[in-house]
Amino acid sequence: MGKRKASADPEMAEFEAALLRSMDQAASGEGRVTTPTQILARRAGRPVGTVKAVPKVSTTIRLSADVVQAFRAAGDGWQTRIDAALKDWLRTHSPV
């Protein structure tokens, strides 16, 4: 590659050098990131074995603000906890 003006920022200079090395490797056919086998293994969709036998159903539900706030305050997974609470309620009550 041609001569480049030296960058005043050492971090930017390292980035530019790495980028130029990467471009040189790509031009020469080196630096292959994946093999054809790996490319075939990455098909569209979810990986095999990650789909649940009984998938959940997407729905829209309107809940009281205080209920949502309480479940969200406990952190991530609040929707799963609401689902568990409803399942628990179904065990003790008869749905109408």
Residue-averaged pLDDT, rounded? 83
* Major sheet description: none
**DSSP strand tally:** 0
**SSE string, helices as H and strands as E:** HHHH
Number of domains: 1
Question: Would you identify the regions where 5 or more consecutive residues have pLDDT less than 50?
Answer: none
Tally of separate helices: 4
Strand content: under 5%
Helix content: 40-55%
Structural class: mainly alpha
| N- to C-terminal distance | 75 Å
Shape: elongated
Radius of gyration: 27 Å
What does this 3D model show about the protein?
- There is one protein chain.
- By secondary structure, the chain is mostly helical.
- It has one domain (10-92).
- The chain contains 4 helices and no strands.
- It has helices spanning 10-28, 36-41, 65-73, 78-92.
- Helix 3 crosses helix 4 (78-92).
- The longest helix is centred in the N-terminal third of the chain and has 19 residues, at 10-28.
- The mean pLDDT is 83.
